[in-house]
């Protein structure tokens, strides 16, 4: 039997290494003799930290739904109507057109939304365009769906905008969609409306679907305001993927959605909506209890036949879920982003080309020539974990070698400690003089300068 099973080549399959995969590798490289606390700057789960505690209203709403005993059964495949309606109304507040329940499909978190959309779109010979750097789950999911992946660059010198010339060069008649992430994960950027218009016009001109990952929607603290890509749904159809994980600080609740912004009806006419609905009939659902909780904690008016909710949770939510809760999170992240940017700017071997304006992470470039015994970003992350008990994500996992993704959604004091450990690591491995000599040598070679000029 073993020989028969082996012929199918399961062990030889190439698999994209995800963030979770590499975090497990880093954990195995920690020094057990180091008595200091391990500092996690490699993942985007803020929920363990007191500064990122969810709203008490959300917790009470979940308890009320649980105690009611009304939501212990199976939900419909696309989600409970009250929850879908509340998401539609929530999203419509930022759009020029109104979404309906039929435009929203609930999922078990944003990763599940990625699975649903890519599985629904996958066709023999099709390809899809992803950003680099990006979120590795997209690549991993595309591989399972036999979708060819092509990567366009995000440009650090332009605030991590999309290289639209690169998109045009990559796309062909078999390109089915492109993905953009705004606010940016992992880069911490926030697109301007002008750039969003150019993205939408490019997708329309190429005849490809625009998938907008907005998991970090409204988590912004810089000069650019968050604007949903659905604003441009009349230019080109948009599928928005989002969740409650980040804004409400409850990633473990696993509640996400797919929303179609398509006032011209292209997605329905082409069968894409039907394909999504068909896939939802054979995949997992978010817990019924969480779905009905969404309709309560989203704070958006809706009508539901059960007097229990109309007289119980909804008035309480409308009263207590204010902007203050969301502002508190953004203010904390702003302070953390400032501290991160300032400290990294003081370390010669590291650079952060764009101060983060949104989301919960930033990208940091390594100059290996200025570091002794550090070959690349993976080596940096492994040795940092071993020597300083700090876990950080190498950019190679996200598609960008010799960069690091640093997540700053931790307690400010813990972040400061982690940044000082990174500073100490870089200082200990500093090779500044030799590194600058190597840089100058490369500059001369690339410029064909005369010996006396170098």
Automatic annotation (TrEMBL):
<protein>
    <recommendedName>
        <fullName>Aminotransferase class I/classII large domain-containing protein</fullName>
    </recommendedName>
</protein>
<dbReference type="InterPro" id="IPR015424">
    <property type="entry name" value="PyrdxlP-dep_Trfase"/>
</dbReference>
<dbReference type="GO" id="GO:0006572">
    <property type="term" value="P:L-tyrosine catabolic process"/>
</dbReference>
<dbReference type="InterPro" id="IPR015421">
    <property type="entry name" value="PyrdxlP-dep_Trfase_major"/>
</dbReference>
<feature type="modified residue" description="N6-(pyridoxal phosphate)lysine">
    <location>
        <position position="246"/>
    </location>
</feature>
<dbReference type="InterPro" id="IPR015422">
    <property type="entry name" value="PyrdxlP-dep_Trfase_small"/>
</dbReference>
<feature type="domain" description="Aminotransferase class I/classII large">
    <location>
        <begin position="37"/>
        <end position="422"/>
    </location>
</feature>
<dbReference type="GO" id="GO:0004838">
    <property type="term" value="F:L-tyrosine-2-oxoglutarate transaminase activity"/>
</dbReference>
<dbReference type="InterPro" id="IPR004839">
    <property type="entry name" value="Aminotransferase_I/II_large"/>
</dbReference>
<keyword id="KW-0663">Pyridoxal phosphate</keyword>
<dbReference type="Pfam" id="PF00155">
    <property type="entry name" value="Aminotran_1_2"/>
</dbReference>
<dbReference type="InterPro" id="IPR004838">
    <property type="entry name" value="NHTrfase_class1_PyrdxlP-BS"/>
</dbReference>
<comment type="similarity">
    <text>Belongs to the class-I pyridoxal-phosphate-dependent aminotransferase family.</text>
</comment>
<dbReference type="GO" id="GO:0030170">
    <property type="term" value="F:pyridoxal phosphate binding"/>
</dbReference>
<dbReference type="InterPro" id="IPR005958">
    <property type="entry name" value="TyrNic_aminoTrfase"/>
</dbReference>
């Amino acid at each position: 039997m073993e020989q028969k099973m082996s012929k199918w080549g399961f062990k030889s399959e190439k698999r994209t290494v995800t963030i979770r995969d590499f975090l497990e590798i880093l954990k195995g490289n920690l020094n057990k003799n180091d008595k200091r606390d391990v500092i996690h700057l490699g993942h985007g789960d803020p929920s363990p930290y007191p500064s990122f505690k969810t709203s008490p209203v959300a917790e009470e709403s979940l308890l009320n739904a649980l105690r009611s005993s009304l939501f212990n059964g199976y939900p419909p495949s696309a989600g409970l109507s009250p929850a879908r309606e509340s998401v539609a109304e929530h999203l419509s507040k930022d759009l020029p057109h109104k979404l309906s329940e039929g435009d929203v499909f609930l999922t078990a978190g944003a990763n599940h939304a990625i699975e649903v959309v890519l599985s629904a779109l996958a066709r023999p010979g099709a390809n899809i365009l992803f950003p680099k750097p990006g979120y590795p789950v997209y690549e991993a999911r595309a591989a399972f769906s036999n979708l060819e992946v092509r990567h366009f660059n995000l440009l650090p010198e332009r605030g991590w905008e999309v290289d639209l010339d690169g998109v045009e060069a990559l796309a062909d008649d078999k390109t089915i969609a492109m993905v953009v992430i705004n606010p940016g994960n992992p880069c911490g950027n926030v697109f301007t409306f002008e750039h969003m218009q150019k993205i939408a016009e490019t997708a329309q001109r190429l005849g490809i679907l625009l998938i907008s990952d907005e998991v970090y929607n409204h988590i912004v603290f810089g000069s650019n305001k968050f604007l949903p890509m659905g604003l441009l749904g009349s230019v080109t159809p948009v599928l928005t993927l989002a969740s409650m994980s980040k804004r409400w600080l409850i990633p473990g609740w696993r509640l996400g959605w797919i929303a179609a912004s398509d006032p011209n009806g292209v997605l329905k006419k082409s069968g894409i909506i039907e394909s999504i609905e068909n896939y939802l009939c054979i995949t997992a659902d978010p817990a019924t209890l969480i779905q009905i909780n969404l309709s309560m904690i989203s704070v958006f008016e809706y009508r539901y036949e059960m007097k229990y909710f109309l007289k119980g949770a909804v008035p309480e939510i409308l009263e207590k879920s204010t902007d203050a809760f969301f502002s508190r999170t953004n203010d904390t992240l702003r302070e953390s982003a400032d501290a991160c940017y300032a400290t990294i700017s003081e370390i010669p071997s590291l650079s952060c080309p764009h101060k983060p304006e949104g989301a919960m992470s930033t990208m940091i470039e390594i100059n290996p020539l200025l570091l002794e015994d550090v070959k690349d970003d993976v080596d940096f992350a492994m040795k940092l974990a071993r020597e300083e008990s700090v876990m950080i994500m190498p950019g190679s996992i996200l598609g960008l070698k010799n960069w690091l993704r640093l997540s700053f959604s931790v307690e400010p004091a813990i972040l400061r400690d982690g940044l000082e450990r990174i500073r100490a690591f870089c200082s200990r491995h500093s090779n500044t003089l030799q590194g600058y000599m190597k840089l100058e040598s490369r500059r001369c070679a690339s410029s064909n300068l005369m010996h006396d000029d170098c």
